[in-house]
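User: Structure please.
Assistant: Input sequence and predicted structure:
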Amino acid sequence: MFDKEFEGLLCSCSTVLGALSGGDSMEVISEDYQLTAAQISSALEFSSDITDFQTASYEGVA
C-alpha cells in the first residue's frame, strides 16, 4: 500500500486524508495529531502525486 508516515510521529497520510474527508479542519488535525500546516499540506501533495497518473485508451474487449 502506498502511504507516507511523518518522521517521528505515529500518523500516516491516510489518517490525515481521512480526517479531512470526515470534515475536520486543518486546525483540528494539527491539534489532534501534533502536525504542522506544512505536514498536512505535504500529505495532500503526496496523495496528489500518487493519484496523478495517465491511463491508456481503452478500445474495447475482444
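The chain has a mean pLDDT of 80.
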